[in-house]
Amino acid sequence: MLTTEEMELLLPEMTLIAGIIFAILIPNLGDSTLRIPLTRTRIPIFIGGTRFKSTSDPRVPARIAIFALFVAFIYSFLEINGASGEVGEVGGVIEITSFTRMMSFVFYGALLLSAIATTYRMPARTSARAPRENDSESLTEALISALMDNRRQVDFHILLMMVGLGMGLMAMASNLFFMFVAIELAGLAAYVLVAFHKEEEVGGEAGAKYFIVGSVASATGIYGMSLVYLWSGDLDFDALANSWAAMDGLDPFAVIGVGLMLVAFGFKVSAAPFHLAAPDAYAGASSPVAGVLATASKAMGFVAIFRVLIQVTMPEEGEALWFILLAIIAVITMTWGNLAALTSDNPKRMLAYSSVAHAGYMLAAVAAVGSGLGDTSTTELVLVAIVFHLTILVLFKLGAFLVLAMLETEGRSHRLEDLHGLAQRDPLIAGSMFIFMLALAGVPPLSGFLSKLLMINGIVNISAGTGSTSADAIVPWAESVDPVFWLAMAIVLNSALSLFYYLRIGLVMFFEAPENEKPLRKSLHLRNTILVLTILTVFFGLGPGAEYLLDLVEGAVSDL
């Protein structure tokens, strides 16, 4: 049993567990009774029977999920500073620090935005009724669709909270086995969410592909974990780090095991060549779910990479054995993602390949850390840049998917033509989408520029071994610079390449004629959410907003 103190430490996760239980029980509350044997006395049991009017409202599951995720989100934010420098342990496999709360803040924020958007993407209609014989064919289809959406509310929001629970527990894991279990809890729920809209052909196909590739990747990672256990005899991260540091030479079990685990983590972050199912998954899933895959799921994968590569296998001095391999994967990933996005005519697939490219940028930064050239301050600078990028990615990457979610309420968003003339139909939403695209490209003064600048600056500092150089020293420095420097150049060149497809979105929104000239649906809460994300994308790019968020991230990374 958990103590009161442990339950307080796990309040966000306990809130999600309570939300899952309430989402199961409350919609089933009714006037059912049970007769006491051998008597005529009946006592109420409240589960079953005719459901109460208040609990049979199809909007209840969404409200429960939004409330639970909001509480988890707010508490995680409050605990980022509260847990700074402190470690709370639960059950020997969970450690709560400011870093874990920073990551759960990212996870729950992305899932909260997804839950809000889903209330419009898959609305619950209290007025829905069964079709009648004299209803037209189109009306019958609309009524059946509305009834299906009502019936699926509980399932969807339970799965969404399960994803959050898995991600939160994963971030706090201090044991490799527990971390894999948490990843699979989040992953299995995510597979179902990708294929949730099974009435659409692309949804079922995308879910099947994502599940098959994800299952193979997970099996590979778990097999690698078993090899690591055979080598070490312990799966606690601290014990693994000590065993790795004391290892004389390279043990095949340890090296192969870590390599196989990187396959599983590569799938989670959509790194090439493990990204092949990602574009189909993003295109087939609803836009809010695709946004979660592009932000929270990616952040989960990088936390796992930090745990294994930085916390366990990083030597105290010298180059890590995975440095060259990860650097090659990073360059291939960012280049492949940007080139594929250039040729995509589906906005969701384009954003999927964009997500692949961003994974490459962050993997390049991790590879620079593995070069062993930097000191503690430069290494921390790079890690701060990665975590900062993962945090603000929720603003403009998920914001772009929420704009597509508004189009999906009209049955659109799978073609580039669906964005044509969006500025004429809704100037505010088109302007927000354009800002999101510029932030993804890394255009100043937006937050996406700051995060890329921090990564590039950190990599350059590691490669040079010092801070910035003077103008007249650039040529001799460039001749003597370490090859790690070219990872920074790869980020710069790929960011320039990405401008072409990001600006193409702006071009079609502002200069093409719309296929449908009607204004977008109001979708009040979703619209307001998009506008808030737009403001924050600018706010965290410069000035006090950027300084405040960077301070939070620096405090969290110091506890990593």
Explain the layout of strands and helices:
Blueprint: H1 4-9, H2 11-25, E1 33-35, E2 42-44, H3 60-82, E3 88-90, E4 94-96, H4 98-121, H5 137-151, H6 153-172, H7 176-194, H8 201-232, H9 237-246, H10 252-269, H11 278-284, H12 287-294, H13 296-312, H14 323-342, H15 347-370, H16 376-408, H17 422-425, H18 427-441, H19 447-464, H20 474-480, H21 485-511, H22 524-539, H23 543-558
Antiparallel strand pairs: 1-2, 3-4
Helix pairs in contact: 2-3, 2-6, 3-4, 3-6, 4-6, 4-12, 4-13, 4-16, 4-23, 6-7, 7-8, 8-10, 8-11, 9-13, 10-13, 11-12, 11-15, 12-16, 13-15, 14-15, 14-21, 15-16, 15-19, 15-21, 16-18, 16-19, 16-22, 16-23, 18-21, 18-22, 19-21
Proportion in helices: over 70%
Shape: globular
Q: Unreliable runs, pLDDT <50, ≥5 residues? A: 466-474
Order of helices and strands: HHEEHEEHHHHHHHHHHHHHHHHHHHH
First-to-last CA distance: 28 Å
Rg (C-alpha, Å): 24 Å
Instruction: Indicate the structural class.
Output: mainly alpha
The strand line-up of the biggest sheet is 1-2
Q: With helices defined by DSSP (H or I, 4 residues minimum), what is the helix count?
A: 23
Number of E strands: 4
Mean pLDDT: 86
Major β-sheet, in short?
2 strands, antiparallel
